[in-house]
Amino acid sequence: DSQLPTFTFSDMFIQISTRLASQYLYGFGETEHTKFPRDMNWHTWGMFTRDQPPGYKLNSYGFQPFYMGLEEDGNAHGVLLLNSNAMDVTFQPTPALTYRTTGGILDFYVVLGPTPELVVQEYTALVGRPVMPPYWALGFQLCRYGYENDTEIAKLVEEMKAAGIPYDVQYADIDYMERQLDFTLNPRFTGLPALINKIKEEGMRFIIILDPAISGNETDYPAFTRGLEKDVFIKWPNTSDIIYAKVWPDLPNVEVNDTLDWDTQVKLYRAHVAFPDFFRNSTTEWWMREIAEVYTNPHNASRSLKFDGLWIDMNEPSSFVNGAVGGCRNQELNFPPYVPQLGSRSEGLIFKTLCMEGQQYLPDGSPVSHYDVHNLYGWSQTKPTLDALRNLTNERGIVVTRSTYPSSGKWSGHWLGDNTAAWNQLDKSIIGTPTQPVTNLFHTGADICGFFGDSEYELCARWMQLGAFYPYSRNHNGKGSKRQDPVAWNSTFEDISRKVLNIRYTLLPYLYTLMYEANAHGSTVVRPLLHEFVEDKTTWEIHRQFLWGAALLISPVLEKGAVAVNAYLPNARWYDYHTDEYIGFRGQFRNLTSPLEHINLHIRGGYILAQQSPANTTFYSRKNPLALVVALNDSQRAEGQLYWDDGVRIGKYQDKPLIFFFLFLQDILEIKVLHHGYTDPNNLKFTQIKILGMTSNVREVTVSQNGEAIRSPHVVSYNSQKEVLEITRLELELGKDYTVQWS
Question: Which biological processes are named by the entry's GO terms (predicted)?
Answer without folding.
Answer: carbohydrate metabolic process
